[in-house]
Design goal:
heterodimer; A: 217 residues; mainly alpha; elongated; B: alpha/beta; Peroxisomal Thiolase, Chain A, domain 1; 2 domains; two-stranded parallel ribbon; 26% strand; globular
Chain lengths: 217, 341
């Protein structure tokens, strides 16, 4: 019996290597065979009298499952080729130019604030930059609240997501969405649902860069 | 009792009639291709409620009540209520069942739930375990969006293969008494996974199972010539194309008969829905608002309705698992008054 399983798996391996991906009937036959064998093997594992026997059958199960993946991949490959062929291509030029325009406008607006603040109130750049960020965050929060920023996002894609306005939008939209679940479990727990990774890895990156600066600089 | 035919198909011995139905749809849906052909149109997606989830419950409640009213029935006269939706723990349906009072089975077959419910209800009634049943499913764009994707107000660009979850609900009253529309056959679907991982391309993930189910029916019944329509639930533009190509490749000439509900609801260009509509509400509203009335234009007509579902969850997507699909089918036949069944 034991010999039998091993032998059958080996014989099948050869068949699997020769199977052409156009003959789905052959593959489906193999898949049925694998399914039945898997079931027997699970029972053999369950009935094993010691760890060694169990390990042996589990190894056969692994082989069986690997063969299943092989057989499925043969069918999937053909299907996925069709999907690829049917899939419409994203209008790359249009999307990139829109993103460039949107992101560029947001950043130009930020620069405008910086320059104005520096000129009008005679403060230095270090002071003016946060004022620009805060202004953009507040404006974005307002635009998100009245349902305009998602339209900008639809138009601008990454151009509206990468600047700080995208960050503000992800926080405010999450807060709006989850306010119905209450202050604690809703807003409190979910507000950084999307911005969370940015905050975590942003902090981490700044610590690492700080360390590098400390050591090397 | 029904009969099994061929490998997987079912033919009912005492087909149940679709006695009445009702559809409830959102604003966006009502400004699409089907315009105002729904029984009830929402003022806005919140529907006077405190949350999207409550709004979805209310939609289902309205759909069932309108369908029952059309058939002059009340909840206590129903022997079964079967239904499902896309929300976690199918809350929209279960909470609606609380107000209906009929014995209830909650189903989850993702967007195939309507047809799943129709098959099971037909089996129950054909088997003599009751006289009437309601089948109702719903989906709500914003409720689904926040559960499965991003907050509604977040500015993200959707990919071209993405579909738009329909805000809508459809209820169908199945009855052993005579009617004009009958559910005469069915094919329960198998779960098929072709290794698609892209969760914004569910049409491709589901198309393989639609092909499997439709071929099973056609191979078992050999009735392609007499079928007037083959309708898939929500494959969208990409899934539709894959399904069409694969069926043609298998030798079935489905040209001029095959449509997808997801492509019949919105104006693809103006309404920014990309590949089309999706969700439990998609086939539920399109069947009631478009295809059942369309069937009545001929003396006899036969429609194979194929509900397609992607059986994924945000968790399986994040864990890198592929998307399994399912497709259930029912055969709906129309006979004009007096022309017999």
């Amino acid at each position: 019996m034991e010999q039998n399983f091993e032998q059958r798996i080996q014989e099948r391996q050869a068949r699997l290597q020769n199977v052409s991906d156009t003959n789905t009937e052959d593959i489906e036959h193999i898949l049925t065979e694998l399914q039945e064998e898997h079931q027997h093997l699970v029972m053999m594992t369950a009935n094993s009298i010691d760890g060694a026997e169990e390990g042996y059958y589990q190894q056969l199960i692994k082989q069986n499952e690997n063969q299943r993946t092989m057989a499925e991949t043969a069918i999937d490959k053909r299907y996925q080729a069709l999907v690829k062929q049917v899939m419409p291509k994203a209008p790359l030029a249009k999307n990139i130019s829109r993103a460039f325009l949107t992101g560029g406008l947001i950043c130009t607006f930020g620069q405008l604030i910086i320059n104005t603040v520096m000129l009008q109130y005679s403060v230095d750049f270090k002071m003016a930059a946060p004022i620009a960020s805060i202004t953009i965050v507040i404006i974005t929060a307002l635009l998100t609240g009245i349902g305009i920023y998602d339209e900008i996002g639809r138009f601008g894609g990454a151009g509206s997501m990468v600047p700080i306005s995208g960050f503000a939008n992800s926080v405010v939209s999450a807060a709006l969405e989850f306010k119905r679940e209450g202050m604690i479990y809703g807003i409190g727990a979910k507000i950084f649902q999307i911005a969370g990774p940015v905050i975590l890895y942003g902090t981490l990156a700044s610590v690492i860069i700080g360390l590098i600066d400390y050591v090397a600089g | 009792m029904g009969r099994c035919i061929g490998t997987r198909s079912i033919q009912f011995e005492h087909p149940v009639a679709i006695r009445s139905w009702a559809t409830v749809a959102g604003r966006k849906e009502a400004s699409g291709k089907l315009k105002r052909q729904f029984d009830f149109i929402l003022e806005d997606n919140i529907f006077g409620e405190k949350s999207w989830e409550r709004a979805e419950q209310k939609m289902q409640q309205y759909a069932i009540e309108l369908a029952m009213e059309k058939a002059s029935l009340y909840g206590h006269q129903l022997d079964y209520f079967l239904g499902g939706d896309l929300l976690n723990q199918i809350i929209a349906t279960s909470y609606t069942a609380r107000n209906i009072g009929a014995p209830y089975f909650g189903l989850y077959g993702a967007c195939s739930s309507l047809v799943e419910g129709m098959i099971l209800a037909s089996c129950l009634l054909d088997g003599g375990f009751g006289r009437r049943a309601a089948v109702c499913t719903s989906s709500h764009h914003d409720a689904a969006e926040r559960q499965l994707r991003y907050p509604t107000e977040m500015g993200v660009q959707r990919t071209l293969s993405a579909q738009w979850t329909v805000t809508g609900s459809g209820a169908y009253i199945l009855d052993q008494e005579a009617g004009n529309w009958y559910i005469t056959g069915a094919v329960p679907g198998r779960v098929i996974d072709r290794g698609i991982k892209n969760s914004s391309d569910m049409g491709s993930a589901m198309a393989a199972s639609a092909v499997d189910t439709i071929s099973a029916w056609l191979e078992d019944m050999h009735d392609l010539d007499t079928l007037d329509y083959i309708i898939t639930g929500d494959l969208g533009k990409i899934g539709y194309e894959i399904c069409r190509q694969q069926l043609t490749e298998r030798g079935f000439d489905i040209a001029g008969k095959y449509y997808d509900c997801g492509m019949q609801l919105y104006h693809a260009e103006d309404q920014d829905v990309h590949a089309g509509g999706s969700g439990c509400g998609c086939s539920a509203v399109v069947l009631g608002a478009k295809y059942l009335p369309l069937m009545a234009e001929k003396q006899h007509s036969r429609l194979l309705l194929v509900g397609t579902g992607a059986l994924l969850s945000p968790l399986t997507v994040q864990q890198g698992q592929t998307i399994p699909g399912i497709a259930h089918a029912v055969l709906i036949e129309y006979h004009q008054e007096g022309s017999g069944c």
